[in-house]
């Protein structure tokens, strides 16, 4: 667990910093013995989720805890049975480079109800689990927080219904939850980059670069719609990186009269000798009146005012696909390790 520093004459000596890091890691070994941790992925998938799952499982095993997969997100937590399985070291071999999530993800309506959360609590308690690692976006982590705040009342209800004993309720009186933000939108506070954002940007740039060549050949204008929901990060960064002519993002609605200004700008670009125009539009783009700006509206506007051959490309779920970038693999691995450490340090007072 530590590197060796080179000494004179080819002699190698362990660096003091590396030795200290090694000793700190050794202190963690078996520090989680007796604990059970469940990991699930929820909501829209994002490249790097598998790397995060891998890190949670292996770090959990390293500290001596039992780590369970929860298949199909919150739906698996509600359904229980075969959806909760004990993981081992080899369960996560050769997945760091895979996109998506090997344990599946689902948008679960039943978990939005108290009955669904009651079933989820029962399944966790039956497996001796009161530590949960959730990898997902805004909705997934909001649901996790609701689950945490209701935990004691859920156990009390299970006792009242005779599904668990009072002794069992006292044993698992506190639910520790750690969330990792898995979302290509980069729309969550607390982290500079969310899991999957960097990979999604790579996908977008590949498409823009490919479209640029055909647009230039045919002197076309392309309107590219990218994901992001209410966050314009993907659109903004891809526009900067590609040298796009115009950009629409939710955070900066264009002022009234933008249609004329945009067409003027695109026309000026052509008059200077450019053979193409690239317009990047975030899917949640709006004007100052809150009206959605659609890619088809922008296309029709350019055709009507400028007469340019204009096409729309909606990137869609291709942005979530493919293998994660090196950045996302490392980010997810670091987050997964820190998630386990956070669970080990959690107390009933931890918020």
UniProtKB/TrEMBL annotation:
One of the GO biological process terms: fructose 6-phosphate metabolic process
UniProt key word Magnesium: yes
Top-rank taxon, per record: Eukaryota
SUPFAM superfamilies: Phosphofructokinase
Phosphoprotein keyword on record: yes
Single GO molecular function: fructose-6-phosphate binding
A single cellular component GO annotation: membrane
Pathway: Carbohydrate degradation; glycolysis; D-glyceraldehyde 3-phosphate and glycerone phosphate from D-glucose: step 3/4
Cofactor: Mg(2+)
Record's catalysed reaction(s): beta-D-fructose 6-phosphate + ATP = beta-D-fructose 1,6-bisphosphate + ADP + H(+)
Keywords: Acetylation, Allosteric enzyme, ATP-binding, Cytoplasm, Glycolysis, Glycoprotein, Kinase, Magnesium, Metal-binding, Nucleotide-binding, Phosphoprotein, Transferase
Domain Phosphofructokinase: 37-342
Pfam families: PFK (PF00365)
Name the record gives this protein: 6-phosphofructokinase, liver type
The organism of origin for this protein: Callorhinchus milii
